[in-house]
Design brief:
mainly alpha, 2 strands, rod-shaped, membrane, transmembrane, transmembrane helix
């Protein structure tokens, strides 16, 4: 069993850290599992640090926890983009509702059709034939 030295997660990342991150996918499954077990607790502590809260990407903690293992979750920009996308979808649905339903309901096609009909208010009904009063 190899002993893995866990560096200070708050210190600045160097070329050794970058090299370890690059070589991680090429390690055997057993070595990757060992690194995951070794980094679990330090990464939990890293998420409580000011460096993580500030979004600094030049620390050992960021390189090991976020880049190597992918444990940092969504950044603020991704959340912002998701919210904007949801607002666009809701806006498109609202526009479709307005133009396809409410616009017709409040004065669209049906009202124009009613204007085209002839006015038969000045007629008398004699059986099934309507004769206009103006023809007498």
């Amino acid at each position: 069993m190899r002993v893995i030295e866990i560096p200070d997660i708050r210190s600045k990342a160097n070329s050794d850290t970058d090299k370890a991150v690059e070589e991680y996918p090429m390690l055997s499954d057993e070595d990757q599992e060992h690194l995951i077990n070794a980094h679990t607790v330090p990464c939990r502590r890293y998420k409580e640090t000011a460096e993580y809260a500030d979004g600094r990407t030049d620390t050992v903690g960021y390189k090991l926890c976020c880049e190597m293992h992918g444990w940092c979750g969504l950044s603020g920009w991704y959340i912002f983009l998701i919210v904007v996308a949801c607002l666009v979808v809701v806006g498109a649905a609202g526009a479709a509702l307005w133009f396809c339903y409410l616009n017709r309901f409040f004065g669209g096609k049906e009202e124009k059709d009613e204007e085209k009909k002839e006015d038969y208010s000045n007629t008398e009904d004699i059986g099934s034939v309507e004769i206009s009063v103006a023809t007498y």
